[in-house]
Amino acid sequence: MKQKQLHIPGKRLKQYEIVQLIGSGGYCKVYQAVNIQTNENVAIKAVAMSTFKNHGGLVGQLHDTEKQNMKLVNSNYVVRFIDEFQQNKYSYIVMEYCNQGDIEKLWLDNNKHFSEAQTIFYVKQILRGIQDLQKCQVMHRDIKMKNILMHNDQIKLGDLGFSKSKLKFMHLVQQQQSYDIDYWYAWLHGSRSCSIQTILQYGGYFQSRLFDLFNDLWTITFFRLKSLNLFV
Ligand SMILES: Nc1ncnc2c1ncn2[C@@H]1O[C@H](COP(=O)(O)OP(=O)(O)OP(=O)(O)O)[C@@H](O)[C@H]1O
Ligand SMILES: [Mg+2]
Q1: Of these four, 78, 141, 147, 189, which has the most CB atoms within 10 Å of its CB?
Q2: CB burial class (10 A; 0-12, 13-18, 19+) of residue 146?
Q3: Angle between helix 178-189 and helix 166-175 axes, rounded to 10 deg
Q4: What is the pLDDT along the chain (232 residues), one digit of tens a residue?
Q5: Exposed (0-12), middle (13-18) or buried (19+): which is 159, by Cβ within 10 Å?
Q6: Domain Protein kinase spans what residues (predicted)?
Q7: Which domains does the chain have, with CATH numbers?
Q8: Can you give the C-alpha Rg of the chain in angstroms?
Q9: What is the pTM assigned to this prediction?
Q10: How far, in Å, CA of 139 to CA of 105, rounded?
Q11: How much distance in Å is there from the Cα of 145 to the middle of ligand 1?
């Protein structure tokens, strides 16, 4: 059955009734839905499982990472995980619904401009989100306007697909599973080949909360300059 028919308004997926399409990414569609048992609005991210193997398995990996790391975080400034299920060849993540969508839309609707006061207000909340992620040992790594959502004028960080959990990483280091270690090394140094000895040499980096924070913070600086139209 085509996605169009599966996800039209009024269709039921488990206890969730589709309301409308609210966003899309490279391999996903995001729908607003209502939990008919509780009347709660939710957002449902749908990914066709047939795409999981695309890009050497990256699509499936991002989807799994997003689920796993969302479950680790409990913050008013990060989109909350609610449920997950698979049905009709799709894999679904049910999460908190953000009623103002992403802030890129808000920025575009506002002629690509936020006032300084607005920007400061947003940046403060984004930093709170990053701080809460840090407390849960999660690094976002993909902070951009499309992944920053807004609900009742409050920022919520979304899209944890590219995020990394340090707890999981340290566990892998102990087991010396080199695939993920390569991944971290590639992220740091832009290359996918390294040995366990090399990565352990860089252990100091991973221990450092400051280093993680820096990675997410440079994006915030970019956001601040962009939202104020200081550069395009
Ligand atoms: N919880 C939510 N509430 C409201 N809108 C949402 C929610 N989650 C996602 N969206 C909308 O759907 C869009 C795509 O979601 P998301 O970024 O999670 O998917 P993605 O596949 O990772 O996208 P991309 O590849 O473009 O980063 C968001 O930019 C936003 O507009
Ligand atoms: Mg995204």
Answers
A1: 78
A2: middle
A3: 120
A4: 555 588 999 999 999 999 999 999 889 999 999 999 999 999 999 999 999 999 999 999 999 999 999 999 999 999 999 999 999 999 999 999 999 999 999 999 999 889 989 899 999 999 999 999 999 999 998 999 999 999 999 999 999 999 999 776 665 555 555 444 444 444 444 333 334 444 444 444 444 444 455 556 666 666 666 666 655 3
A5: buried
A6: 16-232
A7: 3-96 (3.30.200.20), 103-227 (1.10.510.10)
A8: 19
A9: 0.80
A10: 24
A11: 10
Instruction: Give residue 203 CA to ligand 1 midpoint distance, Å.
Output: 33
Token reading at 87: 């049905």
Question: Which token pair is 113?
Answer: 């401009």
Q: How far apart are CA 147 and CA 6, in angstroms?
A: 25
Transcribe 138-188 into DSSP letters: EE-----GGGEEEETTEEEE---TT-EEHHHHHHHHHHT-HHHHHHHHHHH
* Residue owning the nearest CA to atom 10 of ligand 1: 23
